[in-house]
Amino acid sequence: MMSVTKQHVFRGTLLENEPMTKHTSWKIGGVADHMYTPADIDDLAAFLVSLPEDEPVMFVGLGSNLLVRDGGIRGTVISLKGGLSEIELLPNKLVRAGAGVSCAKLSRFCHRNNLVGGEFFAGIPGLLGGALAMNAGAFGGETWSVIDTVTTIDRQGTIYLRSADDYEIGYRKAKGYAGEWFVSADICLSAGDGEQAAQHVKQLLEKRSQTQPTGLPSCGSVFKNPPGDYAARLIEACGLKGFRIGDAFVSEKHANFIINDGKASASDVETLIRHIRETVKDKFDIKLQSEVRVVGEHAND
C-alpha cells in the first residue's frame, strides 16, 4: 500500500478509491486505488519520487479514448485534468502548453492570438498529453505535425526536453522513450487571421455534430481507419448499427462510435468491440485496429 499521505505533504490533490466512472468519457470503470492531480511539474516530480518503486503508475487525461475495466486500477493514477494546464505565447509563433490543457482550449488560444495551423485541435476531445501519446487528429490534422519540442518526466522525477525528431510518429501512434510521460509541448504555428480560423472551426464542429453522436457517453472513434477505407463504412456494411450487448450499443448515427446507454459495463464494451472486429474480419477479411486504450482488471480478477 502507498503511504505518501502520512509521510509527505504535497500541493496537489490525492484521492483514495476513486471511481473511474468520473474520469472517462464512457462513464465506465471500477475504482483506482489512488489518484493524484499535481499542482505543477515540480509537485508532480516530488510526488513520483515519493512512490514505492513497485507502485504501478498510470497517467490519464479526460479519459476520452480510455476503457477502464470493471475491477478498477491497482496502483496510482496521475490525473492531468485540472493540473499542468498552463498555456503561454512564446516568440517565433510558438505556443507552450501543459499536458493538462484541453485540445479545445489550445485551439481557441491559437486563433485568439492570430495563429493558424492548430484549428484541428478543436475536434480532439481530450487533453494535449493524450493527444501527444497517440498522435490524435481531427479535421485532417494530426498533433505531431505542429510539435517542435516536448517536455517529459520519468519515475525518478527527472525532466527531459525532447525534439519532435526524437519520436517515431505514425497514424495514431507516437513511439519515443519508455518510462517517460509528456508534461508539456511547444507547438509551432503560423501567423494568420484568427477570426477567420475561429469561423472555420465553428463550421467544422457544426458539421461534425450532424454526423457524430456528440453529447452521449462514448470514447469517440473506436477503431482506426484501415488504409484506403473507413472503419464506420465497414461496420455499417455489416449491419451492425444499433447492435447491442448489455447497455453498450453501436451508434445509429455513426457506426464507429459505441454508446453507453446508461449502465454499460466495461465487459459489455469489450465484448462488443470484439464482436465488431470479428464480424468485419469475417465479411471483409480486414482486421480493424482499436484506438481504445483498455486498462485495469476484470471484475473477477
How would you concisely characterize the structure shown here?
By secondary structure, this protein is an alpha+beta fold. The chain contains seven helices and 20 strands. Helix 3 (103-112) runs antiparallel to helix 5 (194-211).
CATH fold topology of the largest domain: Uridine Diphospho-n-acetylenolpyruvylglucosamine Reductase, domain 3
What's the alpha carbon Rg, rounded to whole Å? 20 Å
Number of domains: 3
Helix content: 10-25%
Report on the biggest sheet: 5 strands, antiparallel
Could you say which structural class the secondary elements and strand pairing correspond to? alpha+beta
Descriptive report:
- The structure is a single chain.
- By secondary structure, the chain is of the alpha+beta class.
- It folds into three domains: 4-79, 2-Layer Sandwich (Uridine Diphospho-n-acetylenolpyruvylglucosamine Reductase, domain 2); 87-210, Uridine Diphospho-n-acetylenolpyruvylglucosamine Reductase, domain 3 (2-Layer Sandwich); 215-295, UDP-N-acetylenolpyruvoylglucosamine reductase, C-terminal domain (Uridine Diphospho-n-acetylenolpyruvylglucosamine Reductase, domain 1, Alpha-Beta Complex), CATH 3.90.78.
- It contains seven helices and 20 strands.
- The protein has helices spanning 4-7, 41-50, 103-112, 128-134, 194-211, 231-237, 266-284; strands at residues 13-19, 31-37, 57-60, 66-68, 73-79, 87-90, 94-98, 115-116, 137-138, 141-142, 147-154, 159-163, 168-170, 173-175, 180-188, 190-191, 244-245, 248-250, 258-260, 293-295.
- The chain has a five-stranded antiparallel sheet.
- A hairpin with a 2-residue loop joins strand 13 and strand 14 (173-175).
- Helix 3 runs antiparallel to helix 5.
- The longest helix has 19 residues, at 266-284.
- Mean pLDDT is 93; it is low at 1-7.
